[in-house]
């Protein structure tokens, strides 16, 4: 059986769980994507910096991190299982030949990766209720298929439940950051994991997207772990 997630730290009742759907660029045995190896190190393969920031947070009291253990190109768990992007045939202008699957092979990919990832996350949240879920992603300063620069250092995403967002945005601005409210894209479009495990269950969550250049090195990762530690504790306190 494939390893579909890793759990860092010890989740505690009323704690804060960092959930990162795109923390890894691993391609498990038996999967052949048919792309250049270096693309796995780029945004199409992984949310750069997110795994390290999550690990730093998980080392702090009250935090744990639930991280996907395979690349989003293998299976994007932040998409509905039947969405084309769950097993992407192309990403950021690059074809992914190994994902051009027939219905049977696609269903097998979903059953091997998508279903058990979400089952494990649901089980964890049921067993150990959290004061706050931090959905942590990163985004590129500019997409390869676009000339538009993204000026936001951090974005806050949500669908219907914006309780945590309304608290977090002014706090992030108070850190001297350029903050995007539903930028660089809307959580109403790309929010599947939180829609399923937070919004649908009434669990409070905060969707954070950090621009990759902010967390591309160890110094940036430490800085952002500190920012998010302060932020999440304050948000959880005010929500509680």
Automatic annotation (TrEMBL):
Q: Name one GO molecular function term.
A: hydrolase activity
Q: Does the keyword rRNA-binding apply?
A: no
Hydrolase among keywords: yes
Q: Which InterPro entries match?
A: N-FG_amidohydro (IPR007709), UCP029730 (IPR011227)
The protein's UniProt keywords, in alphabetical order, are: Hydrolase
Q: Which Pfam families match?
A: FGase
Name of the molecule in the record? N-formylglutamate amidohydrolase
Q: From which source organism is this entry?
A: Novosphingobium flavum
